[in-house]
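S.,

Sequence below, as promised.
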Amino acid sequence: MRESTQETTAPASASLYERLGGYDAIFAFAGAALKKGMQHPDIGHIWDHMPESSFNREHINFVDFLAAEWGGNVRYRGRDMVTAHRGMGLTDVHWNAMFDCLYACYEEYGLPEELQQEINASFEKFKPVVVGSPSLRSVVLDHPEMDVTKGMKSVGVVWPQRKSGQARE
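The prediction came back faster than expected:
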């Protein structure tokens, strides 16, 4: 992300990745967003028991995901968004908290409104597979007979719900 005192030099036809300043800029932005997430009262608890090594892996996966999503020549090797978020129990409160953190980063980096909107749109399309899964813990508590190694589907909890005619994952 470019500082507010600098002008974006990439042409409008350039990818979002290029217009934001490339991998190093996205690396810094993602780190700032994750740090703000840790400090946010509604989502900070997510990192309560995460070791530094797991955080570092999460950060790099987030950067690679964003860089690939935004048009960079980067290969994302992490889990798909459904697998990564199934069982987390994320709600609209968590989703909105993430956007609080993004907006704070937009301000910190002096990001123009049009880039903010483009970034927001890139996140919004993933909301259906990020928000709404019951937490794995709540499913286990509701189904004490559950074999956790077989997953939530083993007790009839399927997320996300497939629409009729939609292929199985």
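The radius of gyration is 18 Å.

Coffee later?
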